[in-house]
Hints:
- The protein is mainly α.
- The protein has helices at 2-23, 29-63, 67-86, 95-105, 155-162, 176-184, 213-237, 243-249, 252-282, 296-312, 328-335, 337-363, 367-370, 376-402, 414-417, 419-422, and strands spanning 140-143, 146-149, 314-316, 322-324.
- The strands form two sheets. The protein has a two-stranded antiparallel sheet with strand order 1-2. A two-stranded antiparallel ribbon has the order 3-4.
- The radius of gyration is 23 Å and the shape is globular.
- Residues 1-23 have low confidence and may be disordered.
Amino acid sequence: MSGTLNRMLLATAFSVSIVGAALAEAPKKSEVLTTYADIAHAKYSDSLLTAQALDAAIDALIANPSEATLAAARAAWIASRVPYQQTEVYRFGNAIVDDWEGKVNAWPLDEGLIDYVDASYGAESDENGLYTMNVIANTSITVNGSPVDASSITPALIAETLHEAEEIEANVATGYHAIEFLLWGQDLNGTGPGAGTRPATDFDTTNCTGGNCDRRAEYLKAASALLIADLEEMVANWEADGAARAALTEDEDKGLSAILTGMGSLSYGELAGERMKLGLLLNDPEEEHDCFADNTHNSHFYDQVGIRNIYNGHYKRVDGSVISGPSIGDLVAATDANIHEDLTAKLDATTTAMAIMKARAESIEAYDQMIGEGNAEGNAVVQAAIDGLVEQTRPIERAVAALGLGSIEIEGSDSLDNPNAVFQ
């Protein structure tokens, strides 16, 4: 009898909580947008702080190249990815962010543009004439048919001349992944265990391996300085008088649509599709996001954390403090409690699936091994996370309708919408 009573009490409490949510006073739209912008500012500020810590570690590596200073720089790079990946939910609904993002997080990259590569990489590409240009080894280069003085590797050279040179997206010369390649080197293990193994002596001018150690250090420092400058720009965009905040709040309904567009497009087309399902379909380790460092599991996990904390209006900063306030989730809950319940449950389920994938990567096998051909168990773990991302997109779309925001454009992906096209 007591068990039955307990179940009845729980059911009653649950129904009351749902009714309460439905009758709760909706936050003002302006309050929701303020929380969203405040969290953006905090996330980009944290990204800047961790990039500055990375820069200090890079200085230590260059000053005293050793396996210890290299390991410290690598650890600082991995730490810098935690807050940055949580910002990606801001990309698709905010043009200022999307126009800027390619400078700091573009991938995949043809690493032969930057430095030496293994013979298995190949000597040329039909799609990219700069495939093996190796600017670190060459003080004079040719871009778009014109000679370029590369005797000094500066932020301006890599940002203005090399990055997406000749309008080829794979010519990634700046940002997190260029730095990642310089710290780890190529991962030549395929779907076998192991990440990149660049030696610290690649930066040691007195005991140099790989050649051009002074220029490699110069490139690494230039890329790090540029990353800091780019993040400073985005922090400023979300200040009280910043351009991104102003664009967001100019039209409240469009601002709310931007929030849900970012959540939906990152969930579906970008993360579930281009970053995860494509690599799983092809069983291709080259399609993993942080491929040199084998850090992809963290990047995917924190993308999902970013989606969820925007919906909940709650972000824990790297110093442990919390930024929170009225959220888009509160607005949905006050409008349609059933959609809110469904979306909250799906966000939690996807986060759990991502956490399982992350735990597997940290204890059993790396992400690139999970997506390998014939790895049924690893494939299933990745597919469960993909399924969660797809499923949480549906109530996001329903929330748009419930809030009377018209329609939004959620980014798609052939890997989800037309898988046969992937193999053509």
